[in-house]
Amino acid sequence: MQARSDIAPRQVRIVILPLPGSARSAAYGLQDMFGSANRLLQEMQAAPEVHFTVEVLPALPASESEVVQPAIVIVPPILEGDAYLQPQPELCQALRAWHAAGAVICSACAGAFLLAQAGLLEGRRVTTHWQLEEKFRTHYPHLTLDTDALLITESDLVTAGGVMAWVDLGLHLVARHVPPSVVQALGRFLVIDTSERQQRYYRSFRPAMDHGDRAILRLQHHLQARFTERHPIAEMAAIAGLGERTLMRRFRQATGLGPGEYLQQLRLQRARELLENRRDTVEQVALAVGYEDTSAFRKMFLKHTGLTPGQHRARFATRPEGV
Questions:
Q1: Contact, 140 vs 110, CB < 8 A?
Q2: In sequence order, which residues have a C-beta less than 8 Å from that of residue 231 and are 6 or more positions away?
Q3: pLDDT one-digit tens code per residue, 28-85
């Protein structure tokens, strides 16, 4: 079949926002990683469907509207100084505006402090460098911090732990947009191990957030923060400011799922992460993600992943049993 080279690739716009003291190796390393992904796409696909466009902003623009709406925004690690502890009202305003418009907001290492300062981590889990744990808990004691996790990935927010976790963050973001074969080729080119770490990416639930429907996006953000709770359709419609029938139609149009199915996927995604990163029993995991019936949780997990919870843990756990 002849390639349709006349179709322009989908542009994935990425903005990197370094602060004073940010690791230049991370900011420009990410730029190089996405550039390498573009070259591999050109080599592996007759007509690449995706093209990553990366802009490292040395200073925040006077208005976030001066930058074309990005699909991804990254606050890189900060190695020197304490800019991450200082008030950054302009940057936080830009982060909130881009997030509200559907961008995926990401951080590595101390960058998580900026996401917290912007108010984007309310009701969410977050990771940062383990040496910053005490500072983070002092400044944001109400937030749920998990420094055992290398990456905490949600559909609209991603936080990475250590200084070099920007590599894992970059691979994860590339994997959201390209086939596994391209990610594996990228790992070989960069001499990065992607085998076990990348398997779980391909099983992740990553709903569309850039569909442009602000009412549905508002509800998505609400559900992401409170996915363990029950959400009657009437309540969800009120949050979105829509009638129930309109909500059902627009939600499926925007996400490809009904609200109930969407909530189920959020719970299962969190269950995968708990099984991979913690030693809680399956019963404890089920309760933690909103299932009161462990048997129902096991059946639903198997239906959607092809593995039992125990099999998933055995295959993808980041820490072997007994360690």
A1: no
A2: 223, 259, 263
A3: 999 999 999 999 999 999 999 999 999 999 776 655 556 679 999 999 999 999 999 9
Q: Please state, in angstroms and rounded to a whole number, the distance separating the CA atoms of residues 194 and 216.
A: 34
Q: Are 155 and 209 in contact (CB under 8 A)?
A: yes
- Residue pair 146/127 in contact (Cβ under 8 Å)? The answer is yes
The reported pLDDT for the residue numbered 199 is: 28
The enclosing H or E element of 55 equals strand 50-56
* CB contact at 8 A, 127 and 108: no
Contacts of 47 (CB under 8 A, 6+ apart): 3, 4, 5, 7, 9
Checking 176-179 for CB contacts under 8 A at 24+ apart, the result is: 176/201, 176/206, 177/12, 177/50, 177/52, 178/37, 178/41, 178/50
HEC assignment per residue over 87-155: CCHHHHHHHHHHHHCCCEEEEECCHHHHHHHCCCCCCCEECCCHHHHHHHHHHCCCCEECCCCCEEECC
Is the dihedral angle over the CA atoms 167, 170, 174, 176 positive or is it negative?
Answer: positive
- How far is the C-alpha of 100 from the C-alpha of 120, rounded, in Å? 10
Query: Cβ distance 169 to 151 under 8 Å?
Result: yes
Two tokens, residue 211? 């569909």
pTM: 0.69
